[in-house]
């Protein structure tokens, strides 16, 4: 099951790179403008000593506060990109280029809840493993090593509420836990591997930007641009990797529900064909109405 989940996640991400940019181009421009403006205001006279304003050492308290606000703004835009991306993949939605509403707030709320659940599940595991380690060093140390992974598994089993909220599916945390029965460890391993993939891609992104110093003439403008596109690219990598993973999880549980109801692949194809015919008829009717209006 782990190989299946991982293969489907990677395949979904590979085939939807273009979808990420088609659905998120307006947010990407917003990310670029936001990071460029903040980076320009924080850039010292001697230029940045690191890749971006987000990686610079904090010299003043107000700089740290502005950087924290920038991180929150990047996360807000990142959630919006992820929602648009998941909606296009799962239901073919073509939303307005920039939207922010209850749907975004719902996804953010669930993300905060999942973070708290992960932390609260990790704390007792670490306490128990520390006690066991004091009595039986070997097993306790093993449990202490596995505690973060167990907490990750718990969070992943509940995380299907994120893509569900993106497509306005009223899936609850309890339903997510039940629907992912038997998928927990596969989901956790897949999340771990995809996290490593995201880290690798971010490293490559930073390496490519650092190599640009030897190819482009040094200037304050390029330093500001590089400072802006590094966090922008980092956010896009996170969205692309983890939104693809969550969309895969959601697809798996919906397939399970379909199998339990006795639905077959042919049933889905028939529904899709009927939906396409309805769209074509609606398009023709609209075109006919426009022609009558002109006449």
From TrEMBL:
<feature type="transmembrane region" description="Helical">
    <location>
        <begin position="183"/>
        <end position="208"/>
    </location>
</feature>
<feature type="transmembrane region" description="Helical">
    <location>
        <begin position="133"/>
        <end position="155"/>
    </location>
</feature>
<feature type="transmembrane region" description="Helical">
    <location>
        <begin position="24"/>
        <end position="44"/>
    </location>
</feature>
<feature type="transmembrane region" description="Helical">
    <location>
        <begin position="107"/>
        <end position="127"/>
    </location>
</feature>
<keyword id="KW-1133">Transmembrane helix</keyword>
<feature type="transmembrane region" description="Helical">
    <location>
        <begin position="64"/>
        <end position="86"/>
    </location>
</feature>
<keyword id="KW-0812">Transmembrane</keyword>
<keyword id="KW-0472">Membrane</keyword>
<protein>
    <recommendedName>
        <fullName>4-hydroxy-3-methylbut-2-en-1-yl diphosphate synthase</fullName>
    </recommendedName>
</protein>
<feature type="transmembrane region" description="Helical">
    <location>
        <begin position="228"/>
        <end position="253"/>
    </location>
</feature>
């Amino acid at each position: 099951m782990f190989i299946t989940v991982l293969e489907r996640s990677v395949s979904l991400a590979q085939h939807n790179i273009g979808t990420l940019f088609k659905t998120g181009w307006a947010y990407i421009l917003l990310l670029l403008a936001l990071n460029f403006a903040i980076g320009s205001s924080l850039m010292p006279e001697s230029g940045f000593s690191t890749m971006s304003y987000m990686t610079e050492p904090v010299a003043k308290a107000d700089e740290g506060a502005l950087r924290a606000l920038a991180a929150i703004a990047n996360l807000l835009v990142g959630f919006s990109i992820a929602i648009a991306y998941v909606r296009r993949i799962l239901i073919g939605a073509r939303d307005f280029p920039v939207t922010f509403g209850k749907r975004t707030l719902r996804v953010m709320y669930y993300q905060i809840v999942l973070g708290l659940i992960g932390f609260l599940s990790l704390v007792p595991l670490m306490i128990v493993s520390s006690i066991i380690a004091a009595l039986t060093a070997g097993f306790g140390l093993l449990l202490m090593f596995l505690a973060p992974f167990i907490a990750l598994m718990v969070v992943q089993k509940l995380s299907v509420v994120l893509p569900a909220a993106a497509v306005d599916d009223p899936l609850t945390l309890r339903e997510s836990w039940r629907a992912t029965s038997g998928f927990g460890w596969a989901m956790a391993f897949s999340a771990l591997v995809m996290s490593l993939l995201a880290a690798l891609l971010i490293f490559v992104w930073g390496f490519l930007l650092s190599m640009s110093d030897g190819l482009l003439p040094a200037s304050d403008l390029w330093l500001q641009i590089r400072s802006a596109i590094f966090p922008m690219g980092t956010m896009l990598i996170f969205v692309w990797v983890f939104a693809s993973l969550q969309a895969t999880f959601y697809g798996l549980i919906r397939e399970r529900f379909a199998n339990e109801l006795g639905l077959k692949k042919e049933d889905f194809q028939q529904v899709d064909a009927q939906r396409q015919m309805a769209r074509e008829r609606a398009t023709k009717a609209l075109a006919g109405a426009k022609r009558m209006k002109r006449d």
